């Protein structure tokens, strides 16, 4: 490699996770380069931007819940600082969420979610079908009940990404608009990357934050390659009428015949409907079947959507990890850190990821709140140690 640029930190990937890492690191006085052909592009261009720590709670993900809530709590101050730094409003909206049930199975599912939320000390309120419709008059008459979660808000991920691009540039981060060709490892440590335009970029620390692509960057040694896979989501955008008051005033969601569907109304009049969840590798085709299922399920919840203009259909790739939680911090390769695997929670986890990565880049220490999310939980050494710890005492004799 013949380096033409050297920085303290090279961030590979300029989605919201890479950008927030770069912004926070630059604010702390580090020189930063971001390598991405289209900073601010990627999954944020597709995501609905729900900040749904409570309504997207799943069994077995209590540890992740803690991180999700920590990030949700940071959002107001994070947004205020981002507006100040960039001059762009990322469309944070404290609208709350209503999760509804359409039939007896959905109702039982929602009751279980409510019980889990209560056991976890979360704020949610059970409503009858009538109470749901009083809150959201466009809901179908068949809605059988729902959960009102006033703390699950939304942000516009496209505007968030644009604000982060400006904040990065103003903080002095350099955006190198090219694809990363391969990681460079020298003397047993990550030393930079070669860009697709042939530029060599050397750095003291390299953060791999390339979303679903993080698992296939050339040059990353097999033992530290993140176990991240693409999980396709198709998303629709419609336009709500401006007259007659709000079409929907909060996010409305449901599980319909086992599939998640959500409707996220923006102040701008955009209504985002998502999302499929498909394990199809790198395919980002928008399919008739995907659009049909989303419209069918959304129509069951809110029949009036059929009157709205359909303005956009798009598919993106979530970076799925084996335990649905992100990989944050140092790897077993000196100089290489990860900020990837955020799966369904990339937008929600943006503030906390920026803080965690900036802390580790400047101190070398992963902060307490991020320790469960160390990438080392997936490396062979950790698994071996854990197995030894789990063996009955007599096997050590
Ligand atoms: N968090 C919403 C989704 O991944 O579809």
TrEMBL record:
Chain coiled-coil ranges: none
Keyword list, A-Z: Oxidoreductase, Thiamine biosynthesis
Keyword Magnesium: no
EC number: 1.4.3.19
Gene3D superfamilies for the chain: D-Amino Acid Oxidase, subunit A, domain 2, FAD/NAD(P)-binding domain
Keyword Kinase set for record: no
Pfam families found in the cross-reference section: DAO (PF01266)
Pathway stated in the Swiss-Prot or TrEMBL entry: Cofactor biosynthesis; thiamine diphosphate biosynthesis
Every FAD dependent oxidoreductase domain range: 8-359
Single GO MF descriptor: glycine oxidase activity
Reactions this protein catalyses: glycine + O2 + H2O = glyoxylate + H2O2 + NH4(+)
Official protein name in the record: glycine oxidase
Taxonomic lineage: Bacteria, Bacillati, Actinomycetota, Actinomycetes, Kitasatosporales
């Amino acid at each position: 490699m013949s380096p033409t640029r050297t920085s303290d930190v090279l961030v590979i990937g300029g989605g919201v996770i890479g950008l927030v890492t770069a912004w926070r690191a630059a604010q702390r006085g580090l020189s930063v380069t971001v390598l991405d052909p289209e900073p601010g592009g990627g999954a944020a261009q597709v995501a609905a931007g729900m900040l749904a720590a409570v309504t997207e709670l799943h069994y077995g993900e209590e540890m992740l819940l803690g991180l999700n809530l920590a990030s949700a709590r940071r959002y107001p101050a994070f947004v205020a600082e981002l507006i100040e730094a960039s001059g762009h409003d990322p469309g944070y909206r404290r609208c709350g969420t209503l999760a509804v049930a359409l039939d007896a199975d959905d109702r039982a599912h929602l009751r279980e979610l409510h019980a889990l939320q209560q056991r976890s000390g979360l704020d949610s309120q059970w409503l009858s079908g009538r109470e749901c419709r009083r809150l959201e008059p466009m809901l179908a008459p068949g809605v059988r009940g729902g959960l009102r979660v006033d703390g699950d808000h939304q942000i516009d991920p496209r505007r968030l990404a644009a604000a982060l691009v400006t904040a990065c540039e103003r903080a002095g981060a350099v955006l190198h608009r090219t694809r990363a060709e391969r990681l460079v490892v020298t003397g047993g440590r990550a030393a930079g990357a070669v860009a697709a335009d042939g530029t060599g970029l050397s750095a003291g620390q390299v953060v791999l934050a390339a979303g679903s692509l993080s698992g296939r960057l050339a040059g990353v040694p097999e033992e530290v390659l993140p176990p991240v896979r693409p999980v396709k989501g198709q998303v629709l955008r419609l336009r709500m009428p401006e007259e007659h008051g709000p079409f929907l005033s909060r996010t409305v969601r449901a599980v319909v015949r086992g599939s998640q569907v959500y409707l996220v109304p923006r102040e701008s009049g955009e209504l985002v409907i998502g999302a499929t969840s498909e394990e199809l590798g790198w395919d980002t085709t928008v399919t008739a079947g995907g659009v049909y299922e989303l419209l069918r399920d959304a129509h069951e919840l809110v029949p009036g959507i059929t009157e709205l203009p359909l303005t956009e259909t798009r598919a993106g790739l979530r970076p799925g990890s084996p335990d649905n939680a992100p990989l944050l911090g140092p790897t077993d390769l000196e100089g290489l850190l990860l900020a990837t695997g955020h799966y369904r929670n990339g937008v929600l986890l943006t503030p906390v990821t920026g803080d965690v990565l900036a802390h580790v880049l400047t101190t070398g220490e992963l902060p307490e709140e991020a320790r469960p999310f160390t990438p080392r939980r997936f490396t062979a050494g950790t698994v071996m140690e854990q197995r030894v710890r789990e063996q009955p005492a007599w096997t050590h004799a």
